[in-house]
């Protein structure tokens, strides 16, 4: 079942990745990051609320998640390559990818531990009434907050790099 829920999302990332790249070239990286962050946060909030509903509703929401992620990934990689000098670009992109891989591994382990310990097993989203869904809903709310912090760091860093 999970494959059917995520399949449309994976296809959307493939289809919209080049669109994000084209937008970054035309409108700039911060514009694409803004769209990506808006899509990602809104989709995570939507999934957080719909977590105990039918899987097809989650599937639709996840399409927005994957599009947002592909936009953010494209624009941030583009920002890194444009910010660094030509001599630093290879190392910078390698470090960018390394940090992404390590973050994914550590994040997965931390989330797994949090779920095992039932750290988020309390009602936070008032629209989620299923106690079995509270942990997952709360984690998605936390992810939304983390994305907001990350977007703020990006805008502060990119603004400084663009001025210097």
Helices and strands in order, then pairings?
Blueprint: H1 2-27, H2 29-50, H3 55-83, H4 86-116, H5 134-163
What does this structure look like?
By secondary structure, this protein is an all-alpha fold. It is built from 5 helices and no strands. Helix content is 84%, strand content 0%. It has a single domain, classed as Up-down Bundle (Growth Hormone, Chain: A). 23% of the residues are buried. The chain is globular, with a radius of gyration of 17 Å.
CATH architecture designation: Up-down Bundle
| Total beta-strand segments | 0
How many domains comprise the coordinates? 1
Mean pLDDT across residues:
91
* Net shape: globular
Task: Report on the biggest sheet.
Answer: none
**What's the alpha carbon Rg, rounded to whole Å?**
17 Å
What oligomeric state best describes the polypeptide chains here? single chain
CATH top level is Mainly Alpha
Q: Looking at CATH, which topology would you report? A: Growth Hormone, Chain: A
Number of helices: 5
Determine the CATH superfamily: MFS general substrate transporter like domains
Beta-strand share of residues: under 5%
Helix content: over 70%
Features:
164 residues; single chain; mainly alpha; 0% strand; 84% helix
Quick overview:
With 164 residues, this protein is mainly alpha-helical.
């Amino acid at each position: 079942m999970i494959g059917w829920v995520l399949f449309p999302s994976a296809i959307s990332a493939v289809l919209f990745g080049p669109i994000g790249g084209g937008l970054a070239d035309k409108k700039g990286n911060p514009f694409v990051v803004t769209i990506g962050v808006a899509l990602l946060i809104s989709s995570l909030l939507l999934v957080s609320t719909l977590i105990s509903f039918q899987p097809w509703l989650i599937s639709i929401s996840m399409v927005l998640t994957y599009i947002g992620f592909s936009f953010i990934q494209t624009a941030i990689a583009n920002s890194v390559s444009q910010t660094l000098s030509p001599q630093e670009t290879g190392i910078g992109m390698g470090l960018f990818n390394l940090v992404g891989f390590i973050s994914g591994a550590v994040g997965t382990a931390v989330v797994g531990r949090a779920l095992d310990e039932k750290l988020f097993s309390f009602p936070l989203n008032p629209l989620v009434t299923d106690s079995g869904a509270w942990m997952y809903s709360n984690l998605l709310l936390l992810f939304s907050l983390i994305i907001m912090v990350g977007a703020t760091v990006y805008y502060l860093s990119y603004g400084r790099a663009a001025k210097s």
